[in-house]
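Whiteboard transcription, Tuesday session. T.W. wrote the C-alpha coordinates on the left side:
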Protein backbone atom coordinates (compact mmCIF):
# COMPACT_ATOMS: atom_id res chain seq x y z
CA UNK A 1 0.00 0.00 0.00
CA UNK A 2 1.14 3.52 -0.73
CA UNK A 3 -0.06 6.08 1.77
CA UNK A 4 1.03 8.84 4.17
CA UNK A 5 1.02 8.06 7.87
CA UNK A 6 -0.63 11.43 8.60
CA UNK A 7 -1.51 14.48 6.52
CA UNK A 8 1.55 16.20 8.03
CA UNK A 9 3.78 13.92 5.97
CA UNK A 10 2.41 15.63 2.85
CA UNK A 11 3.88 19.02 3.76
CA UNK A 12 6.66 20.27 1.47
CA UNK A 13 8.22 18.95 -1.76
CA UNK A 14 6.06 21.41 -3.68
CA UNK A 15 6.83 21.64 -7.41
CA UNK A 16 7.98 24.60 -9.50
CA UNK A 17 5.70 25.75 -12.32
CA UNK A 18 7.02 27.95 -15.13
CA UNK A 19 4.90 30.95 -16.08
CA UNK A 20 4.01 30.91 -19.78
CA UNK A 21 1.63 33.75 -20.60
CA UNK A 22 2.54 36.41 -18.09
CA UNK A 23 6.21 36.33 -19.02
CA UNK A 24 7.50 37.42 -22.42
CA UNK A 25 10.39 35.01 -22.97
CA UNK A 26 11.93 37.26 -25.62
CA UNK A 27 12.52 40.11 -23.20
CA UNK A 28 12.13 38.74 -19.66
CA UNK A 29 13.81 36.26 -17.35
CA UNK A 30 11.89 33.02 -16.71
CA UNK A 31 9.71 32.94 -13.60
CA UNK A 32 9.03 29.68 -11.77
CA UNK A 33 6.36 29.60 -9.06
CA UNK A 34 7.09 27.46 -6.00
CA UNK A 35 3.62 26.03 -5.48
CA UNK A 36 3.30 26.39 -1.70
CA UNK A 37 -0.49 26.51 -1.91
CA UNK A 38 -0.29 22.74 -2.53
CA UNK A 39 0.67 22.14 1.10
CA UNK A 40 -2.23 20.40 2.86
CA UNK A 41 -3.56 23.47 4.71
CA UNK A 42 -2.94 25.59 1.61
CA UNK A 43 0.04 27.84 2.35
CA UNK A 44 3.77 28.22 2.80
CA UNK A 45 3.18 28.37 6.56
CA UNK A 46 2.42 24.65 6.96
CA UNK A 47 6.17 23.99 6.97
CA UNK A 48 6.96 26.26 9.89
CA UNK A 49 3.79 25.37 11.82
CA UNK A 50 4.61 21.67 11.99
CA UNK A 51 8.29 22.43 12.63
CA UNK A 52 7.52 24.80 15.55
CA UNK A 53 5.36 22.09 17.12
CA UNK A 54 8.01 19.39 16.60
CA UNK A 55 10.71 21.58 18.15
CA UNK A 56 8.44 22.36 21.13
CA UNK A 57 7.77 18.63 21.55
CA UNK A 58 11.52 17.91 21.49
CA UNK A 59 11.93 20.46 24.27
CA UNK A 60 9.19 18.71 26.29
CA UNK A 61 6.94 21.78 26.24
CA UNK A 62 3.84 20.02 24.88
CA UNK A 63 1.63 17.35 26.42
CA UNK A 64 -1.57 15.82 25.00
CA UNK A 65 -4.29 18.42 25.41
CA UNK A 66 -1.88 21.40 25.56
CA UNK A 67 -3.35 24.60 24.13
CA UNK A 68 -1.33 26.24 21.35
CA UNK A 69 -1.84 30.01 21.19
CA UNK A 70 -0.73 32.15 18.23
CA UNK A 71 -1.36 35.58 16.74
CA UNK A 72 -1.84 34.98 13.03
CA UNK A 73 -3.05 36.46 9.78
CA UNK A 74 -4.61 33.04 9.27
CA UNK A 75 -2.15 30.79 7.50
CA UNK A 76 0.12 30.00 10.45
CA UNK A 77 -3.09 29.33 12.35
CA UNK A 78 -4.26 26.92 9.65
CA UNK A 79 -0.95 25.04 9.70
CA UNK A 80 -1.00 24.87 13.48
CA UNK A 81 -4.67 23.87 13.61
CA UNK A 82 -4.01 21.04 11.15
CA UNK A 83 -0.96 19.91 13.18
CA UNK A 84 -2.90 20.19 16.44
CA UNK A 85 -5.75 18.12 15.01
CA UNK A 86 -3.34 15.33 14.08
CA UNK A 87 -1.47 15.44 17.38
CA UNK A 88 -4.35 16.10 19.79
CA UNK A 89 -3.64 19.67 20.96
CA UNK A 90 -6.11 22.55 21.36
CA UNK A 91 -5.67 25.86 19.55
CA UNK A 92 -6.65 29.46 20.22
CA UNK A 93 -5.76 32.09 17.61
CA UNK A 94 -6.02 35.86 17.57
CA UNK A 95 -6.53 37.53 14.20
CA UNK A 96 -6.89 41.17 13.12
CA UNK A 97 -10.33 41.97 11.70
CA UNK A 98 -9.03 42.82 8.20
CA UNK A 99 -8.44 39.11 7.53
CA UNK A 100 -10.90 37.29 5.30
CA UNK A 101 -13.95 35.50 6.69
CA UNK A 102 -12.90 32.40 4.76
CA UNK A 103 -9.74 32.09 6.85
CA UNK A 104 -11.66 32.45 10.11
CA UNK A 105 -14.18 29.82 9.00
CA UNK A 106 -11.39 27.48 7.88
CA UNK A 107 -9.65 27.78 11.26
CA UNK A 108 -12.92 26.91 13.00
CA UNK A 109 -13.38 23.97 10.63
CA UNK A 110 -10.10 22.53 11.97
CA UNK A 111 -11.52 22.88 15.50
CA UNK A 112 -9.64 26.05 16.54
CA UNK A 113 -11.01 28.90 18.63
CA UNK A 114 -10.60 32.31 16.99
CA UNK A 115 -10.48 35.68 18.76
CA UNK A 116 -10.83 38.67 16.42
CA UNK A 117 -9.01 41.90 17.28
CA UNK A 118 -8.88 45.37 15.72
CA UNK A 119 -6.51 45.86 12.74
CA UNK A 120 -5.89 49.55 13.44
CA UNK A 121 -4.17 49.08 16.83
CA UNK A 122 -0.45 49.44 17.35
CA UNK A 123 1.17 46.05 17.97
CA UNK A 124 1.96 46.94 21.62
CA UNK A 125 -1.59 48.13 22.33
CA UNK A 126 -3.09 45.70 24.91
CA UNK A 127 -5.96 44.88 22.52
CA UNK A 128 -3.77 44.21 19.44
CA UNK A 129 -3.69 40.66 18.09
CA UNK A 130 -0.16 40.03 19.37
CA UNK A 131 -0.82 41.30 22.92
CA UNK A 132 -4.19 39.53 23.19
CA UNK A 133 -2.54 36.24 22.17
CA UNK A 134 0.17 36.70 24.81
CA UNK A 135 -2.45 37.44 27.44
CA UNK A 136 -4.52 34.36 26.49
CA UNK A 137 -1.36 32.20 26.69
CA UNK A 138 -0.57 33.60 30.17
CA UNK A 139 -4.09 33.13 31.46
CA UNK A 140 -4.77 29.65 30.01
CA UNK A 141 -3.34 26.88 32.21
CA UNK A 142 -0.70 24.81 30.34
CA UNK A 143 -0.90 26.96 27.21
CA UNK A 144 2.12 27.56 24.96
CA UNK A 145 2.53 30.72 22.86
CA UNK A 146 4.22 29.48 19.68
CA UNK A 147 5.36 33.05 18.87
CA UNK A 148 5.93 32.86 15.13
CA UNK A 149 7.57 36.31 15.13
CA UNK A 150 10.48 35.20 17.32
CA UNK A 151 10.49 31.39 17.16
CA UNK A 152 13.68 30.41 15.25
CA UNK A 153 12.02 27.12 14.24
CA UNK A 154 10.13 29.30 11.74
CA UNK A 155 13.07 30.32 9.48
CA UNK A 156 14.74 26.99 10.27
CA UNK A 157 11.84 25.10 8.66
CA UNK A 158 12.51 26.93 5.39
CA UNK A 159 16.29 26.57 5.72
CA UNK A 160 15.82 22.82 6.05
CA UNK A 161 13.15 22.29 3.39
CA UNK A 162 12.11 25.18 1.09
CA UNK A 163 15.68 26.31 0.31
CA UNK A 164 17.05 22.83 -0.51
CA UNK A 165 14.00 22.00 -2.66
CA UNK A 166 14.49 25.15 -4.75
CA UNK A 167 18.23 24.50 -5.11
CA UNK A 168 17.63 20.92 -6.24
CA UNK A 169 14.73 21.67 -8.57
CA UNK A 170 16.66 24.44 -10.35
CA UNK A 171 19.82 22.29 -10.50
CA UNK A 172 21.50 25.11 -8.58
CA UNK A 173 20.89 27.51 -11.49
CA UNK A 174 18.57 29.95 -9.74
CA UNK A 175 19.62 33.60 -10.22
CA UNK A 176 17.05 35.35 -8.08
CA UNK A 177 14.62 34.39 -5.32
CA UNK A 178 11.58 36.62 -4.89
CA UNK A 179 9.44 36.20 -1.79
CA UNK A 180 7.24 38.06 0.64
CA UNK A 181 7.99 39.11 4.20
CA UNK A 182 5.38 38.43 6.87
CA UNK A 183 7.37 37.03 9.74
CA UNK A 184 10.27 36.85 7.29
CA UNK A 185 10.64 33.16 8.10
CA UNK A 186 10.34 31.83 4.57
CA UNK A 187 12.61 34.35 2.85
CA UNK A 188 15.19 34.37 5.66
CA UNK A 189 15.40 30.57 5.89
CA UNK A 190 15.21 29.70 2.18
CA UNK A 191 17.31 32.75 1.25
CA UNK A 192 20.05 31.85 3.72
CA UNK A 193 20.28 28.30 2.40
CA UNK A 194 20.36 29.41 -1.24
CA UNK A 195 22.99 32.09 -0.60
CA UNK A 196 25.19 29.56 1.18
CA UNK A 197 24.85 27.02 -1.64
CA UNK A 198 25.51 29.66 -4.29
CA UNK A 199 28.62 30.84 -2.42
CA UNK A 200 29.89 27.23 -2.27
CA UNK A 201 29.38 27.02 -6.03
CA UNK A 202 31.15 30.35 -6.55
CA UNK A 203 28.09 32.20 -7.75
CA UNK A 204 25.62 34.75 -6.44
CA UNK A 205 21.88 34.74 -5.89
CA UNK A 206 19.86 37.91 -5.56
CA UNK A 207 17.05 37.98 -2.98
CA UNK A 208 14.25 40.47 -3.65
CA UNK A 209 11.23 41.07 -1.40
CA UNK A 210 8.19 42.94 -2.72
CA UNK A 211 6.30 44.46 0.23
CA UNK A 212 3.15 46.59 0.54
CA UNK A 213 3.24 50.40 0.66
CA UNK A 214 2.40 51.23 4.29
CA UNK A 215 4.61 48.47 5.78
CA UNK A 216 7.80 49.54 7.57
CA UNK A 217 10.11 46.88 6.11
CA UNK A 218 11.49 48.85 3.16
CA UNK A 219 12.25 51.89 5.34
CA UNK A 220 13.87 49.73 8.01
CA UNK A 221 15.92 47.84 5.45
CA UNK A 222 17.18 50.97 3.71
CA UNK A 223 17.42 53.48 6.57
CA UNK A 224 17.14 51.60 9.86
CA UNK A 225 14.16 53.80 10.81
CA UNK A 226 10.68 54.16 9.39
CA UNK A 227 7.95 56.61 8.47
CA UNK A 228 4.49 56.30 10.01
CA UNK A 229 3.07 52.92 8.86
CA UNK A 230 -0.35 52.94 7.21
CA UNK A 231 -3.05 50.37 6.54
CA UNK A 232 -2.97 48.27 3.40
CA UNK A 233 -5.30 45.45 2.44
CA UNK A 234 -3.03 42.66 1.28
CA UNK A 235 -3.05 40.00 4.02
CA UNK A 236 -0.19 38.20 5.71
CA UNK A 237 2.76 40.38 4.68
CA UNK A 238 4.40 43.64 5.72
CA UNK A 239 4.32 44.97 9.26
CA UNK A 240 4.20 47.96 11.53
CA UNK A 241 6.78 46.42 13.87
CA UNK A 242 10.07 44.59 13.51
CA UNK A 243 10.24 40.87 14.18
CA UNK A 244 12.94 38.45 15.34
CA UNK A 245 12.50 35.94 12.52
CA UNK A 246 13.47 38.33 9.74
CA UNK A 247 17.14 38.33 8.71
CA UNK A 248 17.84 41.43 6.63
CA UNK A 249 21.38 40.19 5.94
CA UNK A 250 20.14 37.71 3.30
CA UNK A 251 17.96 40.28 1.50
CA UNK A 252 19.35 42.43 -1.33
CA UNK A 253 16.36 44.58 -2.06
CA UNK A 254 12.87 45.42 -0.81
CA UNK A 255 10.50 47.10 -3.26
CA UNK A 256 7.02 48.44 -2.53
CA UNK A 257 3.93 47.26 -4.39
CA UNK A 258 0.40 48.72 -4.13
CA UNK A 259 -2.70 46.80 -3.07
CA UNK A 260 -4.20 47.42 -6.49
CA UNK A 261 -1.23 45.95 -8.38
CA UNK A 262 -1.08 43.02 -5.95
CA UNK A 263 -4.74 42.05 -6.29
CA UNK A 264 -4.83 42.54 -10.01
CA UNK A 265 -1.72 40.43 -10.47
CA UNK A 266 -3.27 37.65 -8.35
CA UNK A 267 -6.34 37.75 -10.59
CA UNK A 268 -4.19 37.59 -13.72
CA UNK A 269 -2.30 34.60 -12.33
CA UNK A 270 -5.57 32.68 -12.01
CA UNK A 271 -6.90 33.70 -15.41
CA UNK A 272 -3.75 33.56 -17.48
CA UNK A 273 -1.79 30.74 -15.87
CA UNK A 274 -4.52 28.78 -14.06
CA UNK A 275 -2.74 29.26 -10.72
CA UNK A 276 -5.15 30.29 -7.97
CA UNK A 277 -3.47 32.17 -5.15
CA UNK A 278 -4.01 35.03 -2.70
CA UNK A 279 -3.17 38.73 -2.80
CA UNK A 280 0.29 38.44 -1.23
CA UNK A 281 1.37 36.17 -4.10
CA UNK A 282 0.16 38.98 -6.36
CA UNK A 283 2.52 41.35 -4.51
CA UNK A 284 5.40 38.92 -4.93
CA UNK A 285 4.70 38.24 -8.60
CA UNK A 286 4.24 41.90 -9.49
CA UNK A 287 7.71 42.59 -8.07
CA UNK A 288 9.12 39.47 -9.74
CA UNK A 289 7.84 40.57 -13.14
CA UNK A 290 9.65 43.88 -12.75
CA UNK A 291 12.83 42.01 -11.81
CA UNK A 292 12.33 39.64 -14.78
CA UNK A 293 12.30 42.61 -17.14
CA UNK A 294 15.42 44.03 -15.53
CA UNK A 295 17.34 40.73 -15.64
CA UNK A 296 16.29 39.82 -19.18
CA UNK A 297 16.05 36.46 -20.99
CA UNK A 298 18.03 33.41 -19.92
CA UNK A 299 17.96 34.15 -16.18
CA UNK A 300 16.02 32.10 -13.64
CA UNK A 301 13.73 33.63 -11.02
CA UNK A 302 11.91 31.55 -8.41
CA UNK A 303 8.89 33.11 -6.70
CA UNK A 304 7.65 31.66 -3.45
CA UNK A 305 3.90 31.47 -3.88
CA UNK A 306 2.21 32.19 -0.53
CA UNK A 307 -1.24 30.65 -0.31
CA UNK A 308 -4.30 29.46 -2.17
CA UNK A 309 -6.91 31.87 -3.54
CA UNK A 310 -9.87 30.02 -2.05
CA UNK A 311 -9.51 32.00 1.18
CA UNK A 312 -9.98 35.30 -0.67
CA UNK A 313 -13.13 34.61 -2.69
CA UNK A 314 -14.93 37.36 -0.79
CA UNK A 315 -12.02 39.77 -1.34
CA UNK A 316 -9.81 40.16 -4.41
CA UNK A 317 -11.73 37.53 -6.40
CA UNK A 318 -15.02 39.34 -5.82
CA UNK A 319 -15.55 42.01 -8.52
CA UNK A 320 -17.85 44.03 -6.25
CA UNK A 321 -15.28 44.10 -3.45
CA UNK A 322 -12.56 45.11 -5.91
CA UNK A 323 -14.79 47.87 -7.24
CA UNK A 324 -15.77 49.10 -3.78
CA UNK A 325 -12.08 49.35 -2.93
CA UNK A 326 -11.37 51.25 -6.13
CA UNK A 327 -9.10 48.51 -7.49
CA UNK A 328 -11.32 47.66 -10.43
CA UNK A 329 -12.81 50.57 -12.26
CA UNK A 330 -15.84 50.00 -14.44
CA UNK A 331 -13.50 49.94 -17.40
CA UNK A 332 -11.85 46.79 -16.13
CA UNK A 333 -15.11 44.92 -15.57
CA UNK A 334 -15.17 44.28 -19.31
CA UNK A 335 -11.69 42.79 -19.22
CA UNK A 336 -8.51 43.75 -21.01
CA UNK A 337 -7.18 43.48 -24.53
CA UNK A 338 -4.96 40.63 -23.35
CA UNK A 339 -7.99 38.64 -22.13
CA UNK A 340 -9.85 39.20 -25.39
CA UNK A 341 -6.90 38.06 -27.48
CA UNK A 342 -6.97 34.70 -25.79
CA UNK A 343 -10.36 34.15 -27.46
CA UNK A 344 -9.23 35.32 -30.84
CA UNK A 345 -6.76 34.23 -33.46
CA UNK A 346 -4.20 37.03 -33.31
CA UNK A 347 -2.89 36.43 -36.86
CA UNK A 348 -2.46 39.76 -38.68
CA UNK A 349 -2.65 39.94 -42.51
CA UNK A 350 -0.39 42.63 -43.93
CA UNK A 351 -0.46 44.49 -47.20
CA UNK A 352 2.84 44.99 -48.93
CA UNK A 353 3.80 48.53 -49.94
CA UNK A 354 4.35 47.42 -53.56
CA UNK A 355 0.83 46.02 -53.98
CA UNK A 356 -1.74 47.91 -56.07
CA UNK A 357 -5.19 48.96 -54.92
CA UNK A 358 -6.73 46.30 -57.18
CA UNK A 359 -4.59 43.57 -55.60
CA UNK A 360 -5.52 44.74 -52.11
CA UNK A 361 -9.22 44.87 -52.99
CA UNK A 362 -8.98 41.31 -54.26
CA UNK A 363 -7.22 40.06 -51.13
CA UNK A 364 -9.62 41.84 -48.78
CA UNK A 365 -12.51 40.29 -50.61
CA UNK A 366 -10.98 36.82 -50.49
CA UNK A 367 -10.12 37.00 -46.79
CA UNK A 368 -13.30 38.79 -45.73
CA UNK A 369 -11.42 41.61 -44.01
CA UNK A 370 -11.92 45.37 -44.23
CA UNK A 371 -8.49 46.71 -43.41
CA UNK A 372 -4.84 45.72 -43.58
CA UNK A 373 -1.78 47.27 -41.99
CA UNK A 374 1.02 47.82 -44.45
CA UNK A 375 4.42 46.35 -43.64
CA UNK A 376 6.60 49.06 -42.23
CA UNK A 377 7.67 51.94 -44.41
CA UNK A 378 11.29 53.04 -44.57
CA UNK A 379 10.78 55.54 -41.75
CA UNK A 380 9.64 52.62 -39.54
CA UNK A 381 6.04 53.89 -39.31
CA UNK A 382 3.02 51.71 -39.91
CA UNK A 383 0.25 52.65 -42.32
CA UNK A 384 -3.20 51.14 -42.67
CA UNK A 385 -5.34 50.61 -45.75
CA UNK A 386 -9.10 50.60 -45.04
CA UNK A 387 -11.78 49.27 -47.37
CA UNK A 388 -13.65 52.58 -46.99
CA UNK A 389 -10.63 54.62 -48.14
CA UNK A 390 -10.04 52.26 -51.03
CA UNK A 391 -13.62 52.76 -52.18
CA UNK A 392 -13.56 56.51 -51.59
CA UNK A 393 -10.37 57.12 -53.61
CA UNK A 394 -11.53 54.95 -56.52
CA UNK A 395 -15.05 56.40 -56.66
CA UNK A 396 -13.81 59.99 -56.63
CA UNK A 397 -11.17 59.18 -59.25
CA UNK A 398 -8.45 60.27 -56.88
CA UNK A 399 -6.77 56.91 -57.54
CA UNK A 400 -6.90 54.21 -60.22
CA UNK A 401 -6.91 50.47 -59.47
CA UNK A 402 -3.30 50.28 -60.63
CA UNK A 403 -2.06 52.88 -58.15
CA UNK A 404 0.11 51.79 -55.24
CA UNK A 405 -1.67 51.00 -52.01
CA UNK A 406 0.40 53.74 -50.38
CA UNK A 407 -1.69 56.39 -52.18
CA UNK A 408 -4.85 55.48 -50.27
CA UNK A 409 -3.22 54.39 -47.00
CA UNK A 410 -3.52 56.37 -43.77
CA UNK A 411 -1.38 56.58 -40.65
CA UNK A 412 -2.18 53.96 -38.02
CA UNK A 413 -4.89 55.08 -35.63
CA UNK A 414 -6.74 53.59 -32.68
CA UNK A 415 -3.74 51.96 -31.03
CA UNK A 416 -4.05 50.01 -27.78
CA UNK A 417 -1.70 47.90 -25.69
CA UNK A 418 -2.25 44.47 -24.15
CA UNK A 419 -3.18 45.75 -20.69
CA UNK A 420 -5.58 48.44 -21.85
CA UNK A 421 -9.20 47.90 -20.78
CA UNK A 422 -11.70 46.98 -23.47
CA UNK A 423 -13.56 50.19 -22.65
CA UNK A 424 -10.67 51.99 -24.39
CA UNK A 425 -11.21 49.82 -27.47
CA UNK A 426 -14.90 50.67 -27.27
CA UNK A 427 -14.07 54.40 -27.33
CA UNK A 428 -11.84 53.87 -30.38
CA UNK A 429 -14.84 52.41 -32.20
CA UNK A 430 -16.54 55.84 -31.94
CA UNK A 431 -14.20 57.07 -34.68
CA UNK A 432 -12.45 53.95 -36.11
CA UNK A 433 -13.62 50.56 -37.33
CA UNK A 434 -10.83 48.65 -35.64
CA UNK A 435 -8.37 48.96 -32.77
CA UNK A 436 -4.76 48.00 -33.43
CA UNK A 437 -2.82 46.23 -30.71
CA UNK A 438 0.78 47.44 -30.64
CA UNK A 439 3.36 45.83 -28.39
CA UNK A 440 6.93 47.07 -28.25
CA UNK A 441 6.45 48.89 -31.55
CA UNK A 442 5.02 45.89 -33.46
CA UNK A 443 1.40 45.21 -34.45
CA UNK A 444 0.29 42.04 -32.70
CA UNK A 445 -3.44 42.01 -33.44
CA UNK A 446 -6.38 43.89 -34.92
CA UNK A 447 -9.62 44.01 -32.96
CA UNK A 448 -12.97 44.59 -34.66
CA UNK A 449 -16.40 45.16 -33.12
CA UNK A 450 -17.50 41.58 -33.65
CA UNK A 451 -14.43 40.35 -31.74
CA UNK A 452 -15.63 42.21 -28.64
CA UNK A 453 -19.16 40.92 -29.03
CA UNK A 454 -17.93 37.32 -29.36
CA UNK A 455 -15.59 37.72 -26.38
CA UNK A 456 -18.29 39.13 -24.10
CA UNK A 457 -20.79 36.49 -25.17
CA UNK A 458 -18.30 33.70 -24.42
CA UNK A 459 -17.14 35.22 -21.17
CA UNK A 460 -20.47 36.26 -19.63
CA UNK A 461 -18.96 38.52 -16.97
CA UNK A 462 -16.81 35.91 -15.30
C1 LIG B 1 -0.84 35.12 2.94
C2 LIG B 1 0.57 35.18 3.40
N1 LIG B 1 1.52 35.53 2.54
C3 LIG B 1 2.81 35.60 2.90
C4 LIG B 1 3.22 35.34 4.19
C5 LIG B 1 4.69 35.54 4.55
O1 LIG B 1 5.38 34.46 5.02
P1 LIG B 1 6.52 34.59 6.10
O2 LIG B 1 5.84 34.74 7.44
O3 LIG B 1 7.30 33.33 5.99
O4 LIG B 1 7.33 35.81 5.82
C6 LIG B 1 2.26 34.97 5.12
C7 LIG B 1 2.62 34.71 6.51
O5 LIG B 1 1.80 34.59 7.37
C8 LIG B 1 0.91 34.88 4.72
O6 LIG B 1 -0.06 34.53 5.58
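and on the right, the sequence the group agreed on:
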Amino acid sequence: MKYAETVLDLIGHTPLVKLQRMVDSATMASIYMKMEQLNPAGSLKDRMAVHMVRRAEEQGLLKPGTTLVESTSGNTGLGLAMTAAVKGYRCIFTMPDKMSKEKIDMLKAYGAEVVITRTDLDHDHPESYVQVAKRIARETPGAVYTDQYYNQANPEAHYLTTGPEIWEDTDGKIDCLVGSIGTGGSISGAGKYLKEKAAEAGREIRIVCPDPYGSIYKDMFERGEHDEPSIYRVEGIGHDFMVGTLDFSVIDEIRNVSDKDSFRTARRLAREEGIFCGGSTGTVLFGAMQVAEELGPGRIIVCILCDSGDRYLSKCFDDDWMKDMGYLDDAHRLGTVRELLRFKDGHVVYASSDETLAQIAHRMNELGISQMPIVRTRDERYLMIHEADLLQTLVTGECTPDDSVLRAAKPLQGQVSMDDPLSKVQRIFDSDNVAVVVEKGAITAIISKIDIVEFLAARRWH
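Someone added at the bottom: The chain has a mean pLDDT of 92.
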